[in-house]
């Protein structure tokens, strides 16, 4: 007969059963019994300064490890604050479980203090939302949550925890560890795939989505090399293929290389392995036109429910990425000799796209952001993890940084601002916790940083030595850019008056510097890296530059003038 335990203890024991080593969250009185059980548990609880940051960290954990990131928040405001991370996990197909403290069962349906029906609130945003009303069913519900979060298309699950249920006791056995379930391609599908590949003259391999592991990426590399395939990565999945490899030809996302966009349009076969082919990756559904693209399309996804949802591909395969990649690596290569020159040309176009953009010659800017990226790339290890949130500043990473392979990029395909700072803190904590500390670099815009910048306190508290680069141009730059295109010269609601970011970093206990000239960045970077190594704490470098430098491709005034000219002004 199992021993009697409180609901809080049963829950924490269930987390241990499923291999949880780190959880993120903000404490609340609604789940005190869980906090008490964590006191004696080997599970490490990382306390955040905001539930949005905690949920972003859980998402980052899921991306880095492939296992569900776990987050605890309290009811009402705690849950609503965490919703941004849940939405990100849903759009990014990240395994994640959000546990929410709930009012007691004796108060339910009275609109008690901070009460929300989380099944309704999160119902369309998660793979499963439920409430555990009985302590003896905790092992069942938690096992189901881990199974749902990791099987098929990975994603978030929400479990509400009534306060009285956590305090109740029950004698119940623990469940077994979860076992992720993924489909695999059939022999007939692989035969058809090979036939289509052999018939193609201009194929393109497009990688994306979640569920990849190191062996899958290695198998995919062998397949691409053997069949002379150019490899592109979907929006914010650039780390699925080493960007230094001669077969890598760029990312298919916002601000795409026009030459690569042309190749996508002119391709006679797109092998889309993993990506959902959403708005950002398809150029607003123009590079591939729904429902039946001009190109032949092989679409492979972990979730069967997504196949055929937007695009009716010529061949649709429901498969996990490791299962697919192993089958691809085992395929006899097709005769691809005539394509090798095309791969080399596509690579040359990618390398040309990475050269210094002409915007610096047009604006005579004192701070050359392209040179900043080159300096960082030269100084930091190839396996550096680069994180970012959302904004025009991210273009400097997407276009010019060369990601060194799997799990070197943490960025939200959902376009969530504020993601990068907590993602960087989580990456530093997780890699150190696993005994493999890695360099972590965050690119953040000024507006982006201040949405979750308080997590610098978390970084200092837990000794997470990430490097934060803040792009400060005094504006919500992406919105300002679109504003100038649609309403040229009519600036409204996009200007920002910012704090001294270097001083802010110092107030948290981190290293902080501000740079406004190219020549000053290298020395500032050396001082920051020395501080991080000596103190084991984060460092921040603020880049101060004019809003005029809005993208690598055009200045703000050029965008405005083009818009005015189009209107005949």
> Could you give a short account of the major beta sheet?
6 strands, parallel
User: Roughly how many Å apart are the termini?
Assistant: 83 Å
The overall pLDDT average reads 95
Query: Helix/strand/pairing class, anyone?
Result: alpha/beta
Estimated helix fraction: 40-55%
Query: What is the rounded Rg?
Result: 24 Å
Number of helical regions = 22
Order of strands in the sheet with most strands = 3-2-4-5-7-6
User: Tally of extended strands?
Assistant: 20
Tags for this model:
single chain; six-stranded parallel β-sheet; globular; 40% helix; 22 helices; 569 residues
In short:
The protein is α/β, with parallel strands linked by helices and 569 residues long. The chain has 22 helices and 20 strands.
Account of the 3D structure:
The protein is α/β, with parallel strands linked by helices and 569 residues long. The strands form 4 sheets. It has a 6-stranded parallel sheet with strand order 3-2-4-5-7-6, sandwiched between helices. Strands 11-10-9-12-13-14 form a 6-stranded parallel sheet, with helices on both faces. It has a 6-stranded parallel sheet with strand order 16-15-17-18-20-19, sandwiched between helices. Helix 3 packs across helix 16.
Record the SSE blueprint.
Blueprint: E1 4-6, H1 7-17, E2 22-25, H2 32-39, E3 44-47, H3 51-65, E4 69-73, H4 77-92, E5 96-102, H5 118-122, E6 128-131, H6 138-150, E7 156-162, H7 163-167, E8 169-171, H8 187-199, E9 203-207, H9 214-226, E10 231-234, E11 248-252, H10 258-266, E12 269-273, E13 296-301, E14 315-318, H11 321-330, H12 340-353, H13 359-363, H14 369-379, E15 385-388, H15 395-400, E16 409-410, H16 420-433, E17 440-445, H17 446-452, H18 456-461, E18 467-472, H19 477-486, H20 501-508, E19 511-515, H21 518-535, E20 539-544, H22 556-566
Parallel strand pairs: 2-3, 2-4, 4-5, 5-7, 6-7, 9-10, 9-12, 10-11, 12-13, 13-14, 15-16, 15-17, 17-18, 18-20, 19-20
Antiparallel strand pairs: 1-8
